[in-house]
Amino acid sequence: MIDRQRVWALMRKDWTELSRNKQAMVPLAIVPLLFVVVIPTAVIVVGDNAALTSSVNGLQGFLDHLPEGVVPAGLSIEETVVYSVLVYFLAPFFLIIPVMIASITASSSFVGEKERPTIEGLLYTPLTDRELVLGKVLVSVFPSVLIVWGSFAVYTVLVNVLAAPMLGGVFFPTWSWVVLILALVPLVAFLATCLIVAVSGRSRSMQEAQGASLLVVLPVIALVVGQPPGYCSSTPRSHSPAPSSCC
């Protein structure tokens, strides 16, 4: 039977060590800032500028092949671009945040203990193998999910404040976003963390663990990033130009 107090004590120890590691804390702030503030603000400011659709891979095909009814009627071309990118195109990237955070925090879960070295001390504690693995997984899952939830709150306020005047009122979040944030994000974070912790336990150095963890989560990232161009298989909107060659 798992003792929650022992697991919680292990998690607090690892969180304390993580908070003292500036090399880990800086990426934890930069990654959400990029996806939550920088990119959506640039989209709202640039709007229908040709540079936006040409510089973002798959965006033009995504816009050309939006199914009927997913964008509110009566929007101009500029407003359609802004609404589509904020509500649909950027959604999968919120699944990348927990994967990237897990790759930073979970890659040092066991190999970090070996390098310090503190793994022997942990093995002499009353922690069972299940409690040790569970604690190492939850240490990364909880921050990943909480950071994404906080980022979602910031994103909601930001896009509504900046884009609501253009789109005629508050338009975000949608129910699909609620499901993504509350259901898919924890599942993706847990899956990525379990894979990376398993790699960390078999690695001999931090560099080896981080390199191997990138290879492990790369298929997950590729699947997420590949979703926006996947709209090329959808039925084009009737008022859209001819389908592009993104497919």
Can you offer a commentary on this structure?
Mean pLDDT is 75; it is low at 228-247. The longest helix has 39 residues, at 129-167. This protein has 247 residues and is an all-alpha fold. Helices cover 71% and strands 0% of the residues. The radius of gyration is 21 Å and the shape is elongated. It has one domain (4-233). It has helices at residues 4-19, 22-46, 50-55, 59-64, 77-89, 93-105, 111-115, 119-123, 129-167, 175-201, 206-225. The protein contains eleven helices and no strands.
Please state the average pLDDT score.
75
Largest sheet: none
Q: What share of residues is helical?
A: over 70%
* Number of DSSP strand runs: 0
Q: In total, how many domains does the architecture comprise?
A: 1
What's the end-to-end separation, in Å? 52 Å
- General shape: elongated
Q: Which H/E pattern describes the elements?
A: HHHHHHHHHHH
Unreliably modeled segments: 228-247
Class based on secondary structure composition and strand pairing: mainly alpha
What Rg do the Cα atoms give? 21 Å
Strand content: under 5%
Number of helical stretches of at least 4 residues:
11
Quick summary of this structure?
This protein is an all-alpha fold and 247 residues long.
Spell out the blueprint of helices and strands.
Blueprint: H1 4-19, H2 22-46, H3 50-55, H4 59-64, H5 77-89, H6 93-105, H7 111-115, H8 119-123, H9 129-167, H10 175-201, H11 206-225
Keywords:
single chain, 247 residues, mainly alpha, elongated, disordered C terminus
